[in-house]
Amino acid sequence: MKLLTFSIFLLMPLIIYNVEGQGKKQGSTLADRVQQLTDLSSKKSVLRFNANKFKDYVKTAPRNYSIVVMFTALASQRQCAVCRQASDEYTLVANSYRYSPAYSNKLFFAMVDFDEGSEVFQMMKLNTAPIFMHFPAKGKPKAADTMDIQRVGFGAEAIARFISERTDISIRIIRAPNYSGTLSLTLLFAFVGGFLYLRRNNLEFLYNKTMWGVWALFFTLAMTSGQMWNHIRGPPFMHRNQNGQTSYIHGSSQGQFVVETYIVMALNGAVVVGMILMAEAAKGKGDPKKRKIFAILGLVLISVFFSLLLSVFRTKTHGYPYSFLFK
Ligand SMILES: *[C@@H]1O[C@H](CO)[C@@H](O)[C@H](O)[C@H]1NC(C)=O
């Protein structure tokens, strides 16, 4: 009995020391971590986390701050064009927060890139990007803490709304005004207006069918070759793989490179030229010899470039059975 009391007495300081030490360590690390996060965010509004930092600042309890994390893949070889756009919107939210009166140490913004923290992706069982997740100050994230970008998109306003639903912090998005659209439209109107004014005594050209034809043709070629898709999705110009080989045509029908759309546009254009030559030949006017040449040239152009178009299509759509002239 005496021995037990004695040993407890002996051990007591050790136990107290340990409990206190632990408490102290955690307390100080929380304050430290909050301080570190505050310092880091004053330099950069979106913090970049690798696996270690993610564990330290997001996974380690206790936390008294919310943290929003964007899981993304910005490296160009990942070919995630939406990641880049989503990242711009996300940075806009973080910057708007950084300079808003609501700014405090209750909320931080971070991002984990797949190529800097793939362990994090494994740990969180994520297999797509981008994903926006809110880690609340207390407890684990629930299903609603993952932003449903399929439904609401990833515009800065949508992200801010998501954050205000999950925390009590509302962020007003401050976008830098973008005058370039207005400016180019004004310039275009001025140009066209000025041109019409200068030519006001001779507006015959407005009835020029060839001019309208060329415009319509150009518009059609631009649209059918996927320029609008490029504008919206922002694909890479071309692709260079690890072995240094460049590919100009995307290997699947789900994507395209910018240069590929120019190639397709040129092929389509050549087919159109062939068609025009043949139509000219069939008009029945002019030198028969010349018309014969036109007809043959047109036929060759159409066959060759249509075959090329088909083979481009075949490389993208595996299992497509038809080809002509070329495999
Ligand atoms: C969180 O805890 C740290 C350390 O105690 C403190 O400095 C910080 O102000 C707290 N943050 C909030 C939002 O209460």
TrEMBL record:
InterPro entries: OligosaccharylTrfase_OST3/OST6 (IPR021149), Thioredoxin-like_sf (IPR036249). Pathway: Protein modification. Pfam families: OST3_OST6. This is Tumor suppressor candidate 3. Subunit of the oligosaccharyl transferase (OST) complex that catalyzes the initial transfer of a defined glycan (Glc(3)Man(9)GlcNAc(2) in eukaryotes) from the lipid carrier dolichol-pyrophosphate to an asparagine residue within an Asn-X-Ser/Thr consensus motif in nascent polypeptide chains, the first step in protein N-glycosylation. N-glycosylation occurs cotranslationally and the complex associates with the Sec61 complex at the channel-forming translocon complex that mediates protein translocation across the endoplasmic reticulum (ER). All subunits are required for a maximal enzyme activity. It is found in: Endoplasmic reticulum membrane. Keywords: Disulfide bond, Endoplasmic reticulum, Magnesium, Membrane, Signal, Transmembrane, Transmembrane helix, Transport. The chain crosses the membrane at residues 179-198, 210-229, 262-281, 293-313.
